[in-house]
C-alpha cells in the first residue's frame, strides 16, 4: 500500500476503532419501542434483554383486583438513556432501576422508563415495578381475547400474542426469552397455577401463596397465572418430569380420560421430536366459555374447557415447536401451528386413525374458493390472520409435502434437528428451509415457495 494511502487509512480508522473499543464516546440513546415485528410493531422493546422475571401477585377473584410487583433483571444491549416495557392498563405505583427511583411515563402499551443514570452497554440492571388495578384482556386484531381474562371463579391467563402486558410489564416479544419466578397469593380454596415446577404452597390468614419456577427460557406470551377453584393432581413420570394438573371440577369428568394420556403423549412426542424440553409438565383445564381456544402455556397448557385428545397432542407438540423453538417474527407463525397440527395427524396415523395422507387428501379436496386457500401460510399478511385456517391446515400440509419429497427418514431427522438446534432459542422459516435442504440433500426452494408463499391453491404435489 503506498505511504499516502496508508496514512489516510490510519487516520480514518483509529478514532472509529477507539470509540468502538471504549464505548464511552457513543452517545446514549433511547431503546426502541418495539423489536421491529412487522405484525406487532410495538411488541417487545429495543436496548435490553431480560434474563429473569420475578413476579409477585395478589389476586382477589371476588373483586377482580390485582396487586403486583415485577422485578426484571436485564442487560443493556446499547448505551441506554431510556427504555420501554410493554404494559397496558394497570396503575404503576412505583418504579426503580437498581433500587433508585426512576422517572416513568405511559404511552399506550409502552411504559417509558428513564433511569437516574445512563446504563452502559452490557450493564446488568434490575427494574422493579409495583402496580395494581383490575386487569382485563386485550382484544387481538382477529377479535379474540387474550391476557388476563376473568372467569366466574378466578382468571384464565393466556398471552398469545399480546396479552402478557395486561398483567406484568415485559419485553413482550418471543425473541426475548427469560426464566421466571412466580409468587401468587389467592384466597384460600383457590389455586394459582403458573409455569414450571411448584416450589411451595402455604396457607395463612385465609390466603394461599403458590410459588412456581420456570427455569428454562420462556417467551412472555407463554406465561400464565391462571386462578380458579381446581382439583389438583401431581405425579412424576417415568422420565422424571413433574406433572401438575389443575382441573375445574365442572370439567373433570370429561377431562380425566384425556389427561390420563398426557405421559404417553409426551413419551410418544419425545420419540418423534427428541427429548421433552422441560422438567415440568401438566395441564390447566378451566371453564372459560368466552375464550374459545387453548394455549400452549409453557410446560402447562391452559384449556378453556376439557380438551379433546387431538388438542392435548397439539398443545403438547407446541412445547417443542413454539415454546422451546420460538418464533423470531409473528409472520412465521406456521412454524408453531403447522407443526402442532401435523403432530395431530401423525398421532392419528400411529394410533389407528386416519393417515396423514388421508388428512392431506381431505383438505386438498376443498375447492379453490375455500378459506383454506385464502392466503399462504408463510405470509399471513397481518396479525389478524395468524390463527387462520391456512396457518394451521396448509401449514401442516406443507410439512406433509416435505415428508413426501424427502422420505420419512430424512423428514423425522429434520424435525428432530430443528428441535435440537434451536432448543430453548428461536428460529425462522428461512433457517428451517436451509435445515431441510441440508438434512435431505435436496433443493426444496420450489416446494416451500409454492406451499408457504404462493397465493391460491397449489397444483397437486
Ligand atoms: N396457539 C393456540 C393454539 O393453537 C391458539 C390461539 C392462541 C388462538 N391465541 C389465539 C387462536 C387467539 C385464536 C385466537 O394452540
Ligand atoms: Zn397451536
Textual characterization of the structure:
This protein is an alpha+beta fold. It folds into three domains: 1-27, no CATH class; 30-324, Immunoglobulin-like (Sandwich); 327-453, Neutral Protease, domain 2 (Orthogonal Bundle), CATH 1.10.390. It is built from ten helices and 23 strands. The protein has helices at residues 3-22, 252-259, 262-273, 309-317, 334-350, 356-364, 389-406, 408-421, 429-440, 445-453, and strands at 29-30, 48-60, 65-76, 80-86, 91-97, 100-101, 103-107, 110-114, 124-133, 137-139, 145-151, 154-158, 178-187, 191-193, 197-204, 207-218, 226-228, 231-236, 242-247, 280-285, 302-303, 325-327, 425-427. Strands 6-5-9-3-2-13-16-15 form an eight-stranded mixed β-sheet, with no helix packed on it. A four-stranded mixed β-sheet has the order 1-4-8-7, with no helix packed on it. The chain has a four-stranded mixed β-sheet with strand order 18-19-20-21, with helices on one face. Helix 3 (262-273) crosses helix 4 and helix 5 (334-350) crosses helix 7 (389-406). The chain is globular. The relative contact order is 0.09. The model is unreliable at 1-14 (pLDDT under 50). Bound molecules: tryptophan and zinc ion (ZN). Zinc ion is lined by residues 314, 318, 336-337, 340.
Amino acid at each position: 500500500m503506498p505511504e499516502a494511502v496508508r496514512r489516510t487509512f490510519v487516520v480514518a480508522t483509529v478514532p472509529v476503532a477507539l470509540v468502538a473499543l471504549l464505548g464511552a464516546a457513543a452517545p446514549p440513546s433511547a431503546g426502541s419501542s418495539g423489536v421491529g415485528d412487522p405484525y406487532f410493531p410495538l411488541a417487545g422493546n429495543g436496548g435490553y434483554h431480560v434474563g429473569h422475571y420475578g413476579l409477585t401477585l395478589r389476586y382477589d377473584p371476588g373483586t377482580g383486583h390485582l396487586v403486583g410487583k415485577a422485578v426484571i433483571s436485564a442487560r443493556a444491549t446499547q448505551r441506554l438513556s431510556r427504555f420501554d416495557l410493554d404494559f397496558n392498563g394497570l396503575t404503576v405505583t412505583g418504579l426503580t432501576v437498581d433500587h433508585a427511583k426512576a422517572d416513568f411515563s405511559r404511552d399506550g402499551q409502552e411504559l417509558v422508563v428513564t433511569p437516574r443514570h445512563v446504563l452502559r452497554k452490557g450493564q446488568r440492571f434490575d427494574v422493579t415495578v409495583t402496580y395494581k388495578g383490575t386487569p382485563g384482556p386485550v382484544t387481538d386484531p382477529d377479535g379474540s381475547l387474550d391476557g388476563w381474562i376473568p372467569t366466574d371463579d378466578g382468571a384464565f391467563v393466556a398471552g398469545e400474542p399480546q396479552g402478557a402486558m395486561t398483567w406484568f410489564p415485559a419485553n413482550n416479544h418471543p425473541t426475548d426469552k427469560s426464566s421466571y419466578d412466580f409468587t401468587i397469593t389467592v384466597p384460600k380454596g383457590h389455586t394459582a397455577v403458573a409455569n414450571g415446577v411448584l416450589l411451595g404452597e402455604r396457607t395463612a390468614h385465609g390466603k394461599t401463596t403458590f410459588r412456581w419456577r420456570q427455569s428454562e427460557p420462556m417467551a412472555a406470551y407463554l406465561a400464565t397465572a391462571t386462578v380458579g377453584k381446581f382439583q389438583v393432581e401431581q405425579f412424576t413420570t417415568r422420565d422424571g418430569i413433574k406433572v401438575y394438573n389443575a382441573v375445574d371440577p365442572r370439567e373433570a369428568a370429561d377431562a380425566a380420560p384425556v389427561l390420563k394420556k398426557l405421559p404417553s403423549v409426551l413419551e410418544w412426542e419425545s420419540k418423534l421430536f427428541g427429548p421433552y424440553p422441560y422438567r415440568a409438565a401438566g395441564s390447566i383445564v378451566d371453564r372459560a366459555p368466552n375464550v374459545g381456544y387453548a394455549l400452549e402455556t409453557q410446560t402447562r397448557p391452559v384449556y378453556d374447557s376439557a380438551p379433546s385428545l387431538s388438542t392435548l397432542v397439539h398443545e403438547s407438540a407446541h412445547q417443542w415447536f413454539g415454546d422451546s423453538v420460538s418464533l423470531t417474527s409473528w409472520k412465521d407463525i406456521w412454524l408453531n401451528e403447522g407443526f402442532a397440527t401435523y403432530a395431530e395427524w401423525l398421532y392419528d396415523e400411529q394410533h389407528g386413525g386416519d393417515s396423514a395422507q388421508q388428512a392431506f387428501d381431505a383438505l386438498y379436496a376443498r375447492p379453490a374458493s375455500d378459506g383454506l386457500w385464502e392466503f399462504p401460510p408463510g405470509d399471513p399478511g397481518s396479525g389478524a390472520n395468524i390463527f387462520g385456517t391456512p396457518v394451521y391446515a396448509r401449514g401442516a400440509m406443507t410439512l406433509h409435502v416435505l415428508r413426501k419429497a424427502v422420505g420419512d427418514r430424512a423428514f423425522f431427522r429434520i424435525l428432530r434437528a430443528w428441535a435440537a438446534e434451536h432448543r430453548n432459542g428461536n428460529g425462522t422459516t428461512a433457517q428451517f428451509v436451509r435445515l431441510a435442504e441440508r438434512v435431505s440433500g435436496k433443493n426444496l426452494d420450489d416446494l416451500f415457495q409454492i406451499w408457504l408463499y404462493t397465493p391460491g391453491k397449489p397444483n397437486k404435489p
